[in-house]
Design a protein that fits this description.
single chain; about 425 residues; 7 strands; two-stranded antiparallel sheet; alpha+beta; disordered C terminus
């Protein structure tokens, strides 16, 4: 399969995301979610019952065991309900492949794919946005104050008090000088430490500012890159729109790729495309690859067997499986023709040569091969006359002269010997 173009891939991813959103809102999804919640509640009830059983007295043990058993059965039944809801949703999607596209306008306005404004996230530097806390202001201890001992008076002065006073003064002065020296040394040490803290703060702040500038430069570069990518995307779209107007085959192929990328199929039945456009004949040659028959669930219904405490399932009859797979193929073929023609409002494409097939490993050779299951050619004028709401896809393909496998489920190739266009003219 050819790789999707740039815009086709972007569109495909967007459509996948939108499909998942729609599925979550769908009634089937709500029913499934409700069943899952019920199963989870039942499981919790079982756990609580078991816990209660452990705590129960001998007299209560029997009742607790009975309640635990009842809740276990409820849990298993809820699980079965969830499985059946999921199965029903999947099968409904597969059975409604054609109907799912009829209410959708498949035209793609390329202008809408342009980026009109780039959404830049805010610049969030985190801790770098905040200045490095400065060290607290330096506060010196108070300078020692000299206090001279009081002079003696009265009898103390008469009996040698003056001499003792003089000695006390000298001691006080000596102690004061020592205190001042210690104070000056302490202040010097504190000042050196403060200067070191200031220098460390300045370095830390300078480093912060440098890292902040680098972070802002990186952010600005990311913004410029996003702007450049948006500009490049818009320029490429302008070129695509212009080339499409002038019937450049590659542009028409790219547009078809975008259209087909919008066609989102169920997860259980994914498809892939390959296509080329011939300008001379204005014919699109399109190949759709579908999953093998085993991709479609063969389960009819899940059920709980209480005697064995197990969940089993019944299998759809082989006839029903074959009919569902064949129906899916016929729907894919008609759906693809419809999507291409409806999307091509400018009528660049006059006809589509379509092949729907399966890639698989051939049992006889062990080699990869493609098995064509539907081959059909359709002209726009004739196809536009169909009311697809009321058609039977297989009958529509037969009307167009399609070559159709007699047993798609068994991967029996379609008989293309006489030629599809010859069939259509018969």
């Amino acid at each position: 399969m050819a790789k999707r173009g740039f815009f086709a891939e972007l569109n495909y991813q967007a459509q996948q995301a939108e499909k998942r959103r729609r599925q979550q809102e769908a009634a089937a999804a709500r029913a499934q979610a409700a069943a899952m919640r019920a199963a989870e509640k039942a499981r919790r009830d079982v756990e609580r019952a078991h816990a209660a059983m452990v705590r129960a007295s001998a007299a209560e043990q029997k009742a607790a065991e009975k309640e635990a058993a009842r809740l276990h059965v409820e849990s298993r039944l809820a699980e079965v309900e969830s499985l059946n809801a999921s199965l029903a949703s999947t099968l409904a999607e597969i059975d409604g492949l054609l109907a799912a596209t009829l209410d959708v306008d498949d035209y793609v306005n390329l202008e809408s794919l342009k980026v009109h404004s780039v959404d830049h996230p805010p610049f969030r530097p985190g801790p770098l946005a905040y200045p490095t806390p400065a060290p607290p202001e330096l506060v010196y201890p108070p300078e020692p104050v000299y206090q001279e001992p009081p002079a003696p008076s009265g009898l103390a002065a008469a009996f040698g008090g003056k001499k003792k006073h003089q000695a006390a003064v000298e001691r006080a002065r000596t102690e004061h000088e020592q205190a001042r020296r210690s104070w000056r040394e302490q202040c010097t040490t504190m000042q050196k430490a403060y200067r070191a803290r200031l220098e460390a703060h300045e370095k830390a702040e300078a480093s912060r500012l440098e890292k902040l500038a680098q972070a802002e430069a990186a952010y600005q570069e990311e913004c410029r890159r996003r702007d450049a990518e948006a500009a490049a995307r818009n320029q490429a779209l302008d070129e695509l729109i212009n080339n499409l107007a002038f019937d450049v085959p590659e542009a028409i192929e790219e547009y078809v790729g975008i259209v087909l990328s919008n066609s989102v199929y169920p997860e259980a039945f994914p498809v892939a495309y390959d296509h080329t456009f011939d300008l001379a004949s204005r014919e699109l040659n399109l190949t759709v690859t579908v999953p093998e028959p085993t991709a479609i669930p063969a389960v009819k219904e899940y059920r709980y067997v209480k005697a064995k405490d197990e969940i089993t399932h019944s299998t759809l009859p082989a006839k029903a499986q074959k009919e569902r797979y064949a129906s899916a193929l016929w729907q894919v073929a008609v759906r693809t023709l419809h999507e291409v023609f409806e999307a091509d409002r400018a009528e660049k494409i006059n006809s589509v040569a379509l092949t729907v097939g399966v890639d698989h490993v051939a049992p006889a050779t062990g080699r990869q091969e493609t098995v064509p299951l539907v081959v059909v050619a359709a002209d726009r004028k004739a196809f536009d006359e169909f009311d697809l709401v009321n058609v039977v896809p297989q009958a529509t393909l037969a009307y167009l002269g399609a070559a159709m496998s007699k047993s798609p489920f068994d991967l029996t190739p379609a008989d293309t010997g006489p030629g599809v266009r010859v069939r259509g003219q018969a």
